[in-house]
Structures are given as structure tokens and as C-alpha cells.
Amino acid sequence: MPESKKVVLFAVDTGDGRYTAEDSITELKSLAWTMGWETVGTLIQKRPSPALQTYLGEGKVEELRELITSLGAEAAICDDELTPVQAYHLEEQLQSDVLDRTQLILDIFAERARSKEGKVQVEMARWRYLLPRLTGKGVEMSRIGGMAAAEGATRGPGETKLERERSRIRRRMAVLRRELHKVSERRALHREARNAGDMCTAALVGYTNAGKSSLMNRLCGAEVAVEDKLFATLDPTIRMMTLPQGDMAYLVDTVGFINKLPHDLVAAFRATLEEVNHADILIHVVDASHPLMLEQAATVDQVLAEIGAGDKPVIMALNKADLIPAKSYMDAAKARWPKACIISALTGEGCSDLLWMISETLPRQHVVRTYLVPYTEGQVVAWLHQNGRVLDESYEADAVKIRVELNRRMALMVEGYEMAAERV
Ligand SMILES: Nc1nc2c(ncn2[C@@H]2O[C@H](COP(=O)(O)OP(=O)(O)OP(=O)(O)O)[C@@H](O)[C@H]2O)c(=O)[nH]1
Ligand SMILES: [Mg+2]
Questions:
Q1: Which CATH number is 238's domain given?
Q2: In sequence order, which ranges of 40-156 are alpha helices (DSSP H)?
Q3: Disulfide engineering: 204 pairs with which of 212, 278, 299, 361, CB 3.0-4.6 Å?
Q4: Ligand (nearest to CA of 283)
Q5: 214 close to ligand 1 (CB < 6 Angstrom)
Q6: Residue 284 Cβ contacting ligand 1 at under 6 Å
Q7: 218/321 same-domain check
Q8: Do 343 and 211 have their domain in common?
């Protein structure tokens, strides 16, 4: 468990963006809380854009410094990703640790990564973030604004050390890149094995804490960890679910998205996110009890587009319908997604309708086949009547010719009787 510390949050309010500065900082507060940190103060400055050198304007930096001192805070966290220059100047002037939203999210991911795959991905994301910020502080720092230029400039002793450190990290990143490539290949193999069974896959996607893992538990009888904390799930979990009419399909639960999701993280989590890319359909789980559900859903759509999964068929699942706030937001939600399923992963409400919708949206799992079954094997004909819909049946010289619509999986079991030329 990470140690508890007091933090102050700060942001620039430029007046644009999907979220208001206040809403965004409230979310930053829950991210800090997820790390076990207590937010003791916040500071928001209205400006057309962040200051290039110090993010906040000069007077506000001073105000923030006083706030940190008077509240006894141990760190200040910026709600945006700071440039290396901004981070440097702020640390100097505030005389305090300065973190940003990206770092905080990376720290949470690092805390939560359990599998080797998750750990490799997080480490990669951290190095990608750190590499351009590696300054060794001091002399080189003053030139960090022109980092690229500094590479070719006269080398001081500090720089040489810095460059050694950078190449050490680059070598480590090369190792990680190879690891990630292997992860990706392994996942592809597993997917292939799954696809060989001819079953479709639906992937749960959504904002962090929307209830994806809870829904997987409800639909698959699984026991995936559920927590009222952000990013409870990092590793994809795959389970089977039974759809109405006996069809089976895979359900994938995976990492949640968030506003200002760091690009380094998305890039590093490619192998994990590929599970979303390869799904036949997506189930977008929305926390309908959250006042910002429309904004959160828009963020999710944006990330899906970014990872190349923007044009998959999507079922909207408006979750947490059992909560009072959900009832008051439902009209707006229904207006936005008229075909959405209203559900509660907690009580199970609406979940059987959702399963129907999934089975209707998944690519057809039924196939039409024609079989020739010898008269000596009457039990096969009976089985076909029982498990499929018989479309046509005629009596040939020594066999029954029977045309049946049935589930792909069932069809595999009687493949031997199939009339090859007549595959539909
Ligand atoms: N009241 C209520 N709470 C729910 C419902 N579904 C999920 N929750 C709660 O919401 C919190 C988050 O649920 P998770 O299933 O972990 O959410 P998630 O989308 O998997 O979250 P991440 O893995 O962090 O992205 C937990 O405290 C759940 O108990 C629901 O239908 N009703
Ligand atoms: Mg989860």
C-alpha cells in the first residue's frame, strides 16, 4: 500500500475541453485518493493557455507555494501533463515535489500491475514518459527547452553522465519492446485457438469504474476483482458466457479509459488493447449514476477511435440503474442512446435483455447445413430434430437427406454427415 501523503492539486482553466476545470480536478482528486493520498487544497487559474515556462502565471505560482506551506502539503499535482521545462521551473519555485496527472496515472498502473505482461507494459509507459524528462537536474536543466539542440552541443561532464543514463534506458526499452512483441504474439496465438472454436467475442469497454468487471461477473458467473477504485482492472480477462438459445460467446473484460489518458500508456498497452480490436462487438458500459456520464462516454469513444476500434458494432449498457442519481439522469441518457440497455450489474436488472441484445448483435452463430444420414443411424436424425430447426427432409435410397439450421458449435459435432458440395 502506498504511503499516505497530503497533496495540493492545481490546474489552468482555459475554458475549452470536454470537462470543466472543476470536474477534471475532482477526478484528479479521486486518482490521488486511489493512491491513498489526501487532497488538502486545490488551485485553479483562468488563463487562455498555460504559461510556457511555469504552467501557472507568476503570481499564481507564488500563491500555490504559500498554499503548499500553509497546508503542510508534501506534493503538488498538476491536472495536465507538464512539459519538462514547466516541471523543472515549478519544482524550483515551489520548493516541493511536483507531479502531473500522467505521472499519477502511471503510478496507479504500476501499483496495480499484477501479471508479467501488465508490468512490462507499465514499465514501458514509464520510461517513455521519463526519457524526455531525464535531465540530471542542474546545468543541463537550463537548456532542457532545447533538448534536441543540447544533444549536439558541447558536452560537459554532467551531460556525458546524462547521456549514459539515456542510453541505458533506451537499451532497457529495446528489451521491453521485444517482450511486448512476444506478448502480442502470444495473445494472437490464444485468439487463434479461440477462433478455431468458431465462437464470437464481445469486449467490455468503458470509463474506469463504470462496472465492467461487475458486469462480467454477472454475465459469466466469473469472479473478477471489483473495486470502487480507479483502474481496478489492468489485465484482460476472458470468460465464456451463455446466450439465450444456448449459444456461447467469449466476453473480454479489460482496462478502463479516463479523460486525458496518457498517450504513452495507450501506446504501451497496445497488446492489451488488441483484445478490443479483435472483438466482434463492443459492450460500452456507462456509469449512468455519474453526473458526467455523457462526457465520459465521449472520452471512451475518442479512445476507441484512437486505437482503431471506432467502427465496431457497439451495444450501450447504461449501468448502475439501481442508484437514485441514475434514475434522474436516465432521460438524458435515453435521449442520447435510444437503443441502450438499462442495467444493473449489481442487482441483475436488465441483464437478460442485454444478453438477448448481444446474441442479436453478434455475427450469426447459426449455419444451414445439409446432411446425408444413413437409415441405420436414426439417432442422428433425432438429434438434429432436437437441436436444430429442420428446413427440409427427404428420403433417398439408403439415407435421409436433411437440411437443418443449427448452431455452429452443434454443426461441428455432426460434420461427418455433411454433404460437402451443399455447404451454405
Ligand atoms: N450500485 C451499483 N454499483 C455498481 C454496479 N456495477 C458496479 N458497481 C460498483 O462500481 C464500482 C466499480 O465496479 P467495477 O466492476 O470494478 O468497475 P470497472 O469498470 O471494472 O472498473 P475498472 O476496472 O477500474 O476500470 C464497484 O464498487 C462496484 O461494486 C451497479 O450496477 N450498481
Ligand atoms: Mg474492472
A1: 3.40.50.300
A2: 58-71, 84-94, 101-112, 116-130, 147-152
A3: 212
A4: 1
A5: yes
A6: no
A7: yes
A8: yes
* Three-state DSSP class for residue 321: coil
Ligand 1, atom 32, lies closest to the CA of: 320
Q: What is the mean pLDDT of the segment spanning 103-109?
A: 93
Whether 140 shows a pLDDT value over 50: the answer reads no
Q: What is the pLDDT of residues 272-311, one digit of tens each?
A: 888 999 999 999 999 999 999 999 999 999 999 999 999 9
341, 273: one domain: yes
Tens digit of each residue's pLDDT (9 = 90 or more) over 143-153: 333 333 344 44
Ligand nearest to the CA of 286: 1
pLDDT of residue 183: 87
Cα three-residue angle 5-8-12, rounded to 5 degrees: 150
Q: How far is the CA of 91 from the centre of ligand 2 (A)?
A: 35
For residue 153, the model assigns a pLDDT of 44
Structural domain of 16 = 6-112
Q: How far is CA 62 from CA 13, 59, 85, 279, in A?
A: 18, 5, 18, 51
Ligand 1 neighbourhood includes 256 CB (under 6 angstroms): yes
Residue with CA at minimum distance from ligand 1 atom 12:
209
Q: Does residue 423 have a pLDDT over 60?
A: no
Q: What pTM value is reported for the model?
A: 0.82
For the segment 173-196, what is each residue's pLDDT rounded down to a tens digit?
A: 999 999 999 988 988 888 888 876
Ligand number nearest CA of 206 is 1
The pLDDT of residue 248 is: 85
Say how many Å lie between the CA of residue 22 and the centre of ligand 1. 24
208 close to ligand 1 (CB < 6 Angstrom):
yes
Among the candidates 131, 147, 181, a domain finishes at: 181
What integer pLDDT is reported at residue 229 of this predicted model? Answer: 79
Ligand 1 atom nearest 343 alpha carbon: 31
Gap between the Cα atoms of 10 and 31, Å rounded? 14
Q: CA angle 411-413-419, nearest 5°? A: 60
CATH of the domain at 10: 3.40.50.11060
